[in-house]
Here is the input.
Amino acid sequence: MANLRAGLIGLGMMGRNHARILSSLPGVDLVAVADAGGDPHGVARGRPLLSGIDELIAQGLDYCMVAVPTAYHLQIGLALAEAGVHALIEKPLAQDTDSARQLVSAFARAGLVGATGHIERYNPALQQARARIEAGDLGDVYQIVTRRQGPFPARIADVGVVKDLGTHDIDLTSWVRQSPFTAVSARTAFRSGRAFEDMVVMTGLLADGTITGHTVNWLSPFKERITVITGDKGAFLADTLTADLAFHANGNVASDWYALAKFRGVSEGDYVRFAIPKREPLLVEHENFRDAVLGKEADIVTLEQGMANVRVAEAAIESARTGTTINL
Here is the structure.
């Protein structure tokens, strides 16, 4: 069977990583790349370097990786759907829910595979956490808290921190629990002189009753990517920068100290840091999308799920603007 013919549009910081993966992905040939701004990182490497989506489509693609700024996702996605080309579109899926809905409809009408690039789903720490939760290792899940902080990325110009970084946490939280957000409340700050927010603190409620909390900003001098999942047996601590997963168990040693024993809380128990296989999340994401295009069993972030994440992000922004809780 001939390899799938893949294209890549958008050759910025993420584009160069997608090019690296696509250049060596079994069963796939990266046949051409495109960017109106040229090839700043030298990823073409002898392949045709094109300026736009029409030229890229003309190369006879089976599928395309879309890594351009969010403002162009709708235009490029619709062009790919019309041409019958499957597409993996970087997150956030679109600038707003209406644009995301147009993409969902276009790919559905064309019978094409469309996916959103929410890479955190493929992080080994979160994959392991979800599997262990489903196996009952945590018991009932009470709360998911995330912290995603770091310096300002100059490459982001058309969305704020909620849609750029916050959608990671929205997606991974809903995915880990397999439950959608039903309400969100948020507060944002504008500290870097841009039109978009650069800091958000958000709380949420999932349909299964799990409460959530998310701290996201571009204003921290250190980088942090932490997810804490608390249940009735203890808590998982996932660090997606290092792909480490640890479990803090609730203590089960009875206390005869009356003042402590009468408090029906939990105590410190065993601590375990799991040794888990660690494969690059971006590679796993591309493997799953390739398999989906081939009609094989695959775990992709569907366009519908990408749209749901944009909707929650917009609700968070609206909540911060109005000072109210938004029910979804």
In short: DSSP finds nine helices and 15 strands in the chain. The chain has a mean pLDDT of 94. The CA atoms of residues 153 and 291 lie 32 Å apart.
